[in-house]
Amino acid sequence: MVRVGIVGSRFSAGLHAQAYQRTGKVELVAASAIDNLNEFCRKYRIADSCRDFREMLKRDDIELVSVCVPNFLHKEVVIAAAESGKHVICEKPLATRVEDAREMLRAARKNRVKLMYAEDWIFAPALRRAKSICDEGAIGQVLYLKAKETHPGSHSLYAQKIEYCGGGAMIHLAIHSIGFVRWFKGKEVVEVVGKVSGGARDNLKHHNFEGEDWGVGILTFEDKSQALVEGNYITCGGLDDVVEIYGSKGVIKIDLTQGSPLSVYSLDGYSYAIEKAEMTKGWTKPAVDEEASLGYIDEIAHFVDCVAEDKEPQPGMRGEDGLKALEVTMAIYKSAQEGRTIKIR
Ligand SMILES: NC(=O)c1ccc[n+]([C@@H]2O[C@H](COP(=O)([O-])OP(=O)(O)OC[C@H]3O[C@@H](n4cnc5c(N)ncnc54)[C@H](O)[C@@H]3O)[C@@H](O)[C@H]2O)c1
User: Fold this and answer.
1) Which ligand 1 atom is nearest residue 14's CA?
2) pTM confidence score
3) The dihedral of CA 109, 93, 60, 312: what is its sign?
4) Index of the ligand 1 atom closest to the CA of residue 34
5) CATH node for 122-289+325-343
6) In terms of Cα–Cα distance, which of 26, 322, 274, 6 is closest to 175?
7) What is the mean predicted confidence (pLDDT) over 318-334?
């Protein structure tokens, strides 16, 4: 059994806890958070809890720590975990600043622990199937990818503040698309063009959000192929993750969130259909196993195996990949701000 401690107690902490339990290979020994701790520990049968994550990190028996706290805290928690000799899974984005992400990687290297980057899309079964079909040569050479994550607005107040989030919908949502297209292509992004809404009163819809509520980036890879990545908070109807892959001999289209095999018509509504859906009345398409279809279950299982078998995480899931995704994100912001193409490297 791999012994795990979780920092955080709400949305993503719950996703990690469920996924750990589904591996059957993990003992959840402790959790740390500043709220919701008792409820969280009761739900996931975690015996030890403390408000201060540094207290939790003193336990010698913890091998792996999940970092499920607001973005601006990733650096502090990851570095403290690395310095206490624990392997770390860090939620996206790796950090709110590129320099912080580099410091986190240095801390992991210095302390000889694994820093793993939780990009769940790379383990979404539909996206992995698309990749294997593509690798067979079914659509020829990949020329252009489109990938977006959109929804009506974040559930967390911290996500509305630039200081805590690092930006708006681009860093918080589209970073999934960026991590995904980079892994799918297996190539580096060398150039970006970005456009984002201006934040606050210059947003399209959410004038109370400091960061942008809409953003796109056009990425050029080293082989001259292109990708369009998008994140926005102006999409009604719940989480909408869509990927399209255009090859020289074919096309693949993936609807990760809205394309359930279930259709439900309800006059009164019911408790839950899909993440961030505003309502469940009328016709809806509820997710069947959202944690699995979005990749969380297989992602965590992969990380647990990396620790248990002392393996490196697969491409796309290493701390270095989190850094690259953040560099591309920041180049998109720079491009939007300066109105020009930004070269990377
Ligand atoms: N991979 C995904 O699809 C996905 C989905 C949601 C969130 N996330 C990421 O997970 C992270 C957390 O987001 P969330 O939606 O779970 O946020 P949340 O608001 O639901 O929960 C934040 C948690 O952080 C804890 N916390 C805050 N300050 C703390 C501190 N000083 N010490 C210990 N705990 C502290 C809070 O108690 C709370 O449990 C973010 O980085 C977010 O980007 C990833």
Assistant:
1) 16
2) 0.98
3) negative
4) 37
5) 3.30.360.10
6) 322
7) 98
